[in-house]
């Protein structure tokens, strides 16, 4: 049991079995050796007793571990430990997120959204439509500069990594850390493709892990060239363009096959920020990025210094903010019609159209030329054109001044009053009822119910032939013809020829007050050009798959006859008079027979000219989208000028051919006697007296004989005189509603819904074709 020593100190037990004291002298010094259980001093002498030395402290671990190198070893050790644990953690995440993915055996490249390739008659591409906006191309079919530019700026080790590039990822981390913000991505092209094909754009850890797994799968299943081709055909290039073909046509209006080095650099530069770097949005930013791409290509050895200098002059300064060119009006029209022909588009298809690209460009240019030259001063901002051959095939279509500015197709979707361009249907219906081009009507003030149509010039010509009345676009005669034949008969004939819009059965239909589209109006005129057959307008000839399987082919090769040859020949001769001697003189084509009709609506809100040669029927419209009146623009003005410019260009190099019937009248269908030829050049519309061989058949003459020979000029009540406004001292403004197809002569007046209204015995009654009918009032 331990006791206490002196001074009260606690006595600790010693190894010798007795208490150890502070002055204990049995401690060994450093030179003692213990051997055989006892201590001996070197030399064998017994050391003198002395005080025990204090026990030494152990040296610090740093000194024992070797200082700095010990610290370094410990750092390496713990880094290895952390790396192992991180690897275990990453492996766990990969296993976890991988287990949430479908089985790899079910992985497959999703089908690319189907593309609709729309081509002209010569096989050249008009446009591509579909979710991607362009067809898929192999690497061999695209400019070699495109893959080189993309690899140089996006993934320079594309052909050497295994889907994930650790070096590139490390470089990106260092670069971003140095810059203090995200300036470079570490994803490979394979990873980007995997993300585009299979994953959402969400920036989550799960998506990143799945992206890596899918990249490894892609690299194992496909070759590098296949992966690069899939990427270039699916990646987003901005402005709703997916794939290089869509982007090339979107920004440069050419195929990716024809892209030069500078343009390829622009496309590759878009991949970083497609919207912000789009040349359609910011040309300077796009070109600056293209310079970086060219430098990267030079660094990688794809191009030389001299090629860099050349490419800098090739980068486009800017691009349209939208697709440009009239062909896109056609493409939109095709896409509207396609589902009705083949149903839903489930694979790539090729649509062969009836469009002639050279005519399309000439049509667009003719409208732009006239608008640029005279549109501003005459307050005309828009125009449209349709040109159709004898089968109804649309050879050229322009839906507006500039597709990039407005994609609304005014040639197809807009419905406007045709004005006097509707009169040929009125005259053709009258000819079918037995009248002839030489039948005489009285051009004088007329009232039909409460409606008083007036001529544009507010002048009247007395007795005139139908040929002269059509050439001069006399409104009073057209109104009388509607009363003679009845509006229902005019409507039936118009529908028979191709007008599909609803037409109002009132007297004012004679002046074109019912709205129609330019396309249906033009197609209806084609029946006068082709000899009397219906020309159903169509733009799609054939639809095939990419492998050549025919899905649709049109059947407009056997059209029905809608007019007799006699009527066609007479109408052609009469409408030739419109161009030769009437309101359409501005449309004359040197060396060619041409026929047509002008049309102008209320206050010159719409102006039209529709005419034809033996080759083409073309309709032109000028006006404003908001219905704002133009400054005295008539159908014989801007529309006729644009029509002439286009038709001259369209007929260049062709041999002139006469119209049906050679522009001359054939035998009178009523009595079989030959009709008188017009004096001079044989054209109608001169207003010359008739010969004895063809005595005029006049309604006025019949009425005069029955009622005592009243003067025709006094048979109708006088139309009220309208107070005319002045135009800044430049003379009187023509009545608002009488410009060729004008209307009543009163602003805002609605023509009567019933033909005739209250009639007097001096009025021309509808559908009275015999003297007995006139006398009996039936």
Automatic annotation (TrEMBL):
Keywords assigned by UniProt, alphabetized: Carboxypeptidase, Cell shape, Cell wall biogenesis/degradation, Glycosyltransferase, Hydrolase, Membrane, Multifunctional enzyme, Peptidoglycan synthesis, Protease, Transferase, Transmembrane, Transmembrane helix
Disordered, as annotated region: 1-62, 670-692, 722-765
Coiled-coil residues: none
Gene3D superfamilies per the UniProt record, alphabetical: Biosynthetic peptidoglycan transglycosylase-like, DD-peptidase/beta-lactamase superfamily
Membrane-spanning residues: 75-97
Keyword Membrane recorded: yes
Domain spans labelled Penicillin-binding protein transpeptidase: 389-605
GO CC annotations on file: outer membrane-bounded periplasmic space
Reaction it catalyzes: [GlcNAc-(1->4)-Mur2Ac(oyl-L-Ala-gamma-D-Glu-L-Lys-D-Ala-D-Ala)](n)-di-trans,octa-cis-undecaprenyl diphosphate + beta-D-GlcNAc-(1->4)-Mur2Ac(oyl-L-Ala-gamma-D-Glu-L-Lys-D-Ala-D-Ala)-di-trans,octa-cis-undecaprenyl diphosphate = [GlcNAc-(1->4)-Mur2Ac(oyl-L-Ala-gamma-D-Glu-L-Lys-D-Ala-D-Ala)](n+1)-di-trans,octa-cis-undecaprenyl diphosphate + di-trans,octa-cis-undecaprenyl diphosphate + H(+); Preferential cleavage: (Ac)2-L-Lys-D-Ala-|-D-Ala. Also transpeptidation of peptidyl-alanyl moieties that are N-acyl substituents of D-alanine
Family annotation (InterPro entries): Beta-lactam/transpept-like (IPR012338), Glyco_trans_51 (IPR001264), Glycosyltr_51/Transpeptidase (IPR050396), Lysozyme-like_dom_sf (IPR023346), PBP_transglycosylase (IPR036950), PCN-bd_Tpept (IPR001460)
Compositional bias annotation for Basic and acidic residues: 1-12
GO biological process: cell wall organization; peptidoglycan biosynthetic process; proteolysis; regulation of cell shape
Gene Ontology molecular function: any one: serine-type D-Ala-D-Ala carboxypeptidase activity
Functional pathway: Cell wall biogenesis; peptidoglycan biosynthesis
Glycosyl transferase family domain: residues covered: 131-297
Family as reported in the entry's similarity comment: In the C-terminal section; belongs to the transpeptidase family. In the N-terminal section; belongs to the glycosyltransferase 51 family.
Name under which the protein is recorded: Penicillin-binding protein
Organism expressing this protein natively: Rhizobium leguminosarum
UniProt lineage: Bacteria, Pseudomonadati, Pseudomonadota, Alphaproteobacteria, Hyphomicrobiales
């Amino acid at each position: 049991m331990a006791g206490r020593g002196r001074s009260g100190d606690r006595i600790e037990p010693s190894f010798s079995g007795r208490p150890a004291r502070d002055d204990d002298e049995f401690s060994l010094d450093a030179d003692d050796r213990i051997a055989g259980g006892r201590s001996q001093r070197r030399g064998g002498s017994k050391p003198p007793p002395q005080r025990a030395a204090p026990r030494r402290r152990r040296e610090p671990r740093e000194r024992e571990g070797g200082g700095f190198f010990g610290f370094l070893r410990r750092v390496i050790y713990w880094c290895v430990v952390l790396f192992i644990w991180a690897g275990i953690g990453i492996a766990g995440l990969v296993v976890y997120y991988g287990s949430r993915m479908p089985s790899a055996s079910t992985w497959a490249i999703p089908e690319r959204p189907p593309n609709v390739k729309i081509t002209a008659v010569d096989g050249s591409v008009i446009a591509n439509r579909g979710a991607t906006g362009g067809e898929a191309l192999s690497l061999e079919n695209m400019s070699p500069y495109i893959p080189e530019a993309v690899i140089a700026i996006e993934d320079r080790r594309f052909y050497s990594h295994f889907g994930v590039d650790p070096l590139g990822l490390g470089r990106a981390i260092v670069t971003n850390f140095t810059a203090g913000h995200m300036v470079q991505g570490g994803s490979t092209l394979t990873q980007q493709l995997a993300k585009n094909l299979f994953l959402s754009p969400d920036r989550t850890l799960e998506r990143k892990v799945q992206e890596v797994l899918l990249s490894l799968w892609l690299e194992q299943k496909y070759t590098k060239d296949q992966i690069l081709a899939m990427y270039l055909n699916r990646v987003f290039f901005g402005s709703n363009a997916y794939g290089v073909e869509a982007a090339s046509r979107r920004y440069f209006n050419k195929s990716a096959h024809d892209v030069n080095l500078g343009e390829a650099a622009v496309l590759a530069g878009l991949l970083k920020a497609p919207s912000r770097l789009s040349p359609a949005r910011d040309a300077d930013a796009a070109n600056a990025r293209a310079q970086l791409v060219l430098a990267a290509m030079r660094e990688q050895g794809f191009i030389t210094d001299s090629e860099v200098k050349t490419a800098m002059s090739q980068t486009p300064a800017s691009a349209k903010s939208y697709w440009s060119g009239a062909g896109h009006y056609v493409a939109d029209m095709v896409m509207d019609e396609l589902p009705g022909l083949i149903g839903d588009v489930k694979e790539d298809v090729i649509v062969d159209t009836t469009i002639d690209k050279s005519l399309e460009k000439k049509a667009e240019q003719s409208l732009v030329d006239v608008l640029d030259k005279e549109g501003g001063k005459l307050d005309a901002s828009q125009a449209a054109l349709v040109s159709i051959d004898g089968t109804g095939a649309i050879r050229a279509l322009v839906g507006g001044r500039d597709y990039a500015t407005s994609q609304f197709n005014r040639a197809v979707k807009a419905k406007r009053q045709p004005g006097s361009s509707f009169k040929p249907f009125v005259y053709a219906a009258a000819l079918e009822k037995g009248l002839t081009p030489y039948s005489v009507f009285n051009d004088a003030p007329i009232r039909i119910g409460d409606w008083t149509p007036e001529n544009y010039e507010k002048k009247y010509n007395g007795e005139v032939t139908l040929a002269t009345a059509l050439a001069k676009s006399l409104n009073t005669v057209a109104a009388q013809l509607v009363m003679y034949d009845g509006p229902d008969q005019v409507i039936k004939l118009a529908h028979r020829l191709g007008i599909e819009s609803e037409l109002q059965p009132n007297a004012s239909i004679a002046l074109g007050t019912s709205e129609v589209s330019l396309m249906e109006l033009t197609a209806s005129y084609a029946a006068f050009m082709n000899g009397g057959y219906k020309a159903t307008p169509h733009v799609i000839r054939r639809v095939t798959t990419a492998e050549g399987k025919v899905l649709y082919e049109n059947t407009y090769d056997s059209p029905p006859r809608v007019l007799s040859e006699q009527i066609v020949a007479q109408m052609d001769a009469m409408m030739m008079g419109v161009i030769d001697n009437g309101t359409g003189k501005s449309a004359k084509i040197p060396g060619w027979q041409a026929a047509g009709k002008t049309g102008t609506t209320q206050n010159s809100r719409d102006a039209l000219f529709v005419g034809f040669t033996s080759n083409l029927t073309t309709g032109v419209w000028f006006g404003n989208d908001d219905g704002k009146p133009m400054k005295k623009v008539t159908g014989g003005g801007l529309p006729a000028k644009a029509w002439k410019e286009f038709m001259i260009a369209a007929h260049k190099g062709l041999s002139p051919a006469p119209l049906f019937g050679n522009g001359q009248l054939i035998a009178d269908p009523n009595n079989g006697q030959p009709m008188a030829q017009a004096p001079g050049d044989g054209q109608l519309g001169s207003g010359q007296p008739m010969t004895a061989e063809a005595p005029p058949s006049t309604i006025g003459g019949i009425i005069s004989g029955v009622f005592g020979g009243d003067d025709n000029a006094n048979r109708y009540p006088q139309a009220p005189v309208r107070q005319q406004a002045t135009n800044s001292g430049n003379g009187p403004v023509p009545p608002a509603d009488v410009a060729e197809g004008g209307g009543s002569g009163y602003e805002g007046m609605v023509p009567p819904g019933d033909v005739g209204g209250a009639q007097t015995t001096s009025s021309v009654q509808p559908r009275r074709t015999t003297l007995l009918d006139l006398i009996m009032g039936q």
